[in-house]
């Protein structure tokens, strides 16, 4: 028996003009909203409230060190020592369609247009609010764990790297991806549903790098389906049941199950270089199971949801036992690893290899880099030397066979380009051990880590622990490939920033945490060196928000292109309004809803909201015009099974208006389409 609390809060942030975080494609800039992003928080406390563990899964690309440091500062000022570095785990789902700009290390500024305060603030405040809600709603309850296999939802996107792992190791596994989902079910003492956390290894990249609508991708769709089912009659994003689909060791795992093919010829490019005969690597793209990226997102999301629902309904193995948590800061650029009694190796200062710039089959790079390159390219190396300085011989030697593109650990202007100080963290809830890792472990790296942690618990008298990896926690350090995969230098290896022995170093560190938890010696763990919090201010290349105008004889919110008078289910109702920059709304209201689909009730003579902007059936597009003008187009993709009747679509925005030369104010406005009928197909 535990005290349990769950909470969900909006963390969407600005949906326009801000680059999306994940594919590092500078052309992929937000232009609207498919579905809102949420932070989902879960608190477990023991009955006498002496110990607590918090797990947060947020619909963001990854948790950055900046986000974590700010969240923990604010938790401390509000709750004192209740929520701390060791007992708060912050994990990102790894959607590639959320706003960027919440990082303090310079590398991430290149494709994020710097540090974007509204983006950072929405994430920090959303995480805090979700924890607040969970904190205020603690009740006695029970935890159950279940696990099962998810089929047809992932492929290994670097199978040639995976094959570098020893045959004896590979033969112990039936697949080159981890198909297992681990699900934690939470109910109150009367058996009423509270929520769940699912951990499953898959990249949320069903939406590709041409997408410009902010959304939470396949795992977000799974959350949406589960929450819609349990919060009956509520609008999306409302209701008390919280379902988190959290990330795991997804480093080399793609949801694009039809695999890589050449965009120009259609032939397979499943080769060690992921390259096409014509057009090279930039033509090699993986496709999902659907006709387009929207359908692929739903197919993969639904697969994940259906398995979670089955596991939830059948869960019978109860989790009981004490709570504990351990955390250390480690200088990852300088860890000595004991491989065996006679052999010591070291990690390196962070650096990215050439294949990092190649991208992956889920999102190719912008230049003609190819994966699996173990030699540099003189042209790029020369540009790099002039701009950023050549890597030192020491760093080159340490990272071998990686050809270094960016020696980020030796780049310090205007701030360091990559973190040195990294969080390692683990929390135990009874027999469940959550290993919070700061990046993307590949399939085999994750297996080795889980095995090492399990055996550490075993050898210190805590057998049969359920060890689960929570990905993209606390600080982002790119990928963690195995030593063998590292030799092939595909994307994941080139992005293993602390060198070939990165995984061995993490295994050593997490073994230490497991040992401390199992033997009750957490208080003896050294805290480690505290990470820096840079004083950045608002360093951004985002265009500033200036006064806006409606066209002549029109007002904000007026309809420019009307809906049709009737639609059938399966069709798309669409209306275009005189719009304003949606960033105005994000900076003025934390939870601004841009649209409503409303149905007319003949009995009461009033309109009732049936969908909002968090719905996966609505799409909100913003198009910037000239002279301070812009348009908003709202689509409702009318789902099968929609109640027939009279509907309308409403739009809610804010525009900037000049009061004087130096003062602008933000003015709210709204608009509505004409009424239309949804008729039988």
Automatic annotation (TrEMBL):
Its cofactor is Zn(2+). It catalyses: an N-acylsphing-4-enine + H2O = sphing-4-enine + a fatty acid. InterPro entries: Ceramidase_alk (IPR006823), NCDase_C_sf (IPR038445), NEUT/ALK_ceramidase_C (IPR031331), NEUT/ALK_ceramidase_N (IPR031329). One of its GO terms (cellular component) is plasma membrane. The keyword DNA repair does not apply. Binds 1 zinc ion per subunit. Zn(2+) binds at residues 94, 203, 440, 479. The keyword Cytoplasm does not apply. Residues 511-678 form the Neutral/alkaline non-lysosomal ceramidase C-terminal domain. One of its GO terms (biological process) is ceramide catabolic process. It comes from the Eukaryota. Its EC number is 3.5.1.23. Keywords: Hydrolase, Lipid metabolism, Metal-binding, Sphingolipid metabolism, Zinc. One of its GO terms (molecular function) is N-acylsphingosine amidohydrolase activity. Residues 2-508 form the Neutral/alkaline non-lysosomal ceramidase N-terminal domain. Pfam families: Ceramidase_alk (PF04734), Ceramidse_alk_C (PF17048). It is an enzyme of class 3 (hydrolase). The active site is at residue 254. This is Neutral ceramidase. The gene is Asah2.
